């Protein structure tokens, strides 16, 4: 089955978060999300809004384009 864009973006968030040695809980706190919401986002089970992706990028200190490099 073909990977959805939500799954691809979620994987990128996970990759970047791991590279920066940030826990899922820590990233969720920085974004003012519940950890369960961050988990759903990383698994691609959530269709994130642009404002959600903006919060994630700000918390990870990356440019938006980084989430779409797959």
TrEMBL record:
Residues 13-67 form the HTH cro/C1-type domain. Coiled coil: none annotated. Pfam families: HTH_26. Keywords: DNA-binding. SUPFAM superfamilies: lambda repressor-like DNA-binding domains. InterPro entries: Cro/C1-type_HTH (IPR001387), Lambda_DNA-bd_dom_sf (IPR010982), TransReg_Diox_bact_type (IPR050807). This is XRE family transcriptional regulator. It comes from Flavobacterium hungaricum. The lineage of its organism: Bacteria, Pseudomonadati, Bacteroidota, Flavobacteriia, Flavobacteriales.
